[in-house]
Design goal:
single chain, about 500 residues, alpha+beta, 2 domains, 5-stranded mixed sheet, 23 strands, about 15% helix, about 25% strand, globular
Length: about 500
């Protein structure tokens, strides 16, 4: 299968020194993760004493959250979890790397989590999504309930499902990115790449309050039926699936290579001089760009947008059920960045609501991130966490903690997101990337990010839902936006 990155086709790690180092590092990380998983099953480290000195015999897993030999990478989320590839802070992702043996069949058996959304998505070696099978598309087991369908019982006890994983490409004409309510799928296509490797990511968004990272149901269980008819379940399937193999991917799948990022920033400085915009590619007022392919991302710095980019392939393991717009923020233009827009409607689920509702979107969030060479998330707020006024509009403030206006609180009707003290984490301490996610836009909601068909149409298509922004000082925001909370 042909693979693409921003700087050309992916070459084997065996013939590229930098990629060999990445592969070795990832292999070491995978091995450490396996050791950590075994140790984490015991709540206390075992110790022995020799001559009065304690010796640690078992290493406790330093990374929080559940994982196992199949779902060995993750959970990915905001700190203190593994924080890379711009995760949404309201979600948890797990990654599985495996190879289905010749003549074998693999399926995933699980229970629908108590959350707003879940999906299984396959990827190629460049981190480009191949296929997403979202919750509502999965047929529940006999006698079970799919709690993600509109009107379904979200607290049903019988919530099992099974999904086959096939080493093949999905149908070429299969629609993606929109709500396909009424369809069902029983197969996730996960074609092999490179050395015969396959990748699947499992995602949970907005778990209900009071449940663990898995949404209270654990992780999906691999069930491998070998060519000779033997069936291996769970941990027993891991050796046959080679789940500890090194992750053979293009390093740019996780972040823009540092040398490339330095090159882009240097180019942007020159372009900024020509445009008389010293903070370029940040602008005032801000410009929001829909996410397209990697070359389009680079063009934000070079000032030369492409004419026919491909949607949603230029991120870092993006979710096909989401579409994104982003803007680059620079504190040199003002220490407080203020966003105001109309809020799309979504189902309410955080409090364990009994029935799955409907809305213009399944989910939306706003995130503050570091730069493209770092790909850390500083923080996010999702729909149910954002105060919405009587007019249907919300206000979100993005600033460093030291610059946070005193009235930028939910009690005052304002959501707040942090900027990192080291900015983009690589080049400029004043730079932050702000990103808006829209999930599963419906065909009867014409203002979803999914409805944007070409660069430059973001504001026209989104209308009032387009995040208008401006830079202010802390004191200016405090006087301009009074806190109207009831003090009685």
């Amino acid at each position: 299968m042909k693979q693409h990155s921003g700087s050309g086709s992916v070459r084997s790690t065996a013939c590229h020194p930098f990629r060999r180092r990445i592969a070795m590092a990832l292999a070491f990380a995978a091995a450490c993760g396996t050791v950590g998983t075994a140790a984490a099953q015991s709540p206390q480290s075992q110790q022995s004493k020799s001559g009065g000195t304690a010796v640690v015999d078992a290493i406790r897993d330093p990374i929080p959250g559940p994982r196992n030999c199949f779902w060995s990478r993750g959970p990915v989320s905001a700190d203190p979890y593994i924080n890379i590839a711009y995760p949404d802070a309201g979600t948890f992702y797990w990654g599985a790397t495996f190879s289905i043996p010749e003549g074998a069949r693999l399926s995933m058996e699980g229970n629908f989590p108590h959350s707003r959304y879940m999906s299984l998505i396959s990827y190629d070696g460049a981190g480009v999504p191949v296929e997403s099978v979202a919750d509502y598309l999965i047929k529940p087991a006999t006698g079970a309930v799919n709690p993600f369908l509109p009107g379904a019982n979200r607290n049903a006890k019988a919530r099992g499902y099974s999904l086959d994983v096939l080493d093949a490409a999905p149908p070429a004409d299969q629609p993606v990115g929109m709500n396909l309510l009424g369809q069902q799928r029983s197969i996730l296509h996960a074609p092999k790449y490179g050395p015969g490797q396959q990748q699947v990511l499992y995602r949970i968004y907005a778990r209900d309050k009071g449940v663990d990272e898995t949404g209270g149901v654990g992780l999906p269980v691999p069930v491998l039926t070998l060519a000779d008819g033997r069936v291996l379940r769970g941990d027993a399937a891991c050796p046959a699936l080679r789940t500890r193999q090194p992750l053979q991917i293009d390093p740019a799948a996780l972040a823009v290579p540092m040398e490339k990022y330095h090159e882009l920033v240097a180019t942007a400085r020159e372009v900024g001089k020509e445009k008389h915009q010293p903070a370029f590619p940040a602008t005032s007022p801000p410009t929001w760009f829909i996410q397209y392919d990697r070359e389009y991302l680079y063009s934000l710095y070079t000032g030369k947008p492409l004419t026919s980019p491909k949607k949603s392939t230029g991120g870092f393991y993006p979710n096909l059920d989401n579409q994104y717009i982003r803007t680059i923020v620079n504190r040199k233009l003002g220490k407080v960045f203020v966003i105001r827009a109309k809020a799309p409607t979504t189902p309410r689920t955080a409090n364990g609501d009994a029935v799955m509702g409907t809305g213009e979107l399944r989910y939306w969030s706003m995130c503050s991130n570091q730069g493209f060479a770092n790909t850390r998330v500083n923080g996010c707020v999702y729909d149910e966490q954002v105060p919405v006024g009587p007019d249907g509009f919300y206000t979100i403030v993005v600033s460093r903690k030291e610059d946070r206006p005193r009235n930028a609180t939910t009690q005052c009707g304002i959501a707040w997101l942090p900027m990192a003290d080291d900015g983009d984490g690589a080049e400029d301490a004043d730079v932050t990337v702000v990103q808006l996610r829209h999930m599963l836009g419906t065909t009867d909601f014409p203002h979803a990010v999914q409805a944007i068909s070409k660069p430059g149409d973001e504001r026209k298509v989104m209308g009032d839902y387009y995040p208008a922004g401006r830079y202010m000082s802390t004191s200016a925001f405090e006087i301009a936006v009074p806190c109207m909370q009831d003090k009685h």
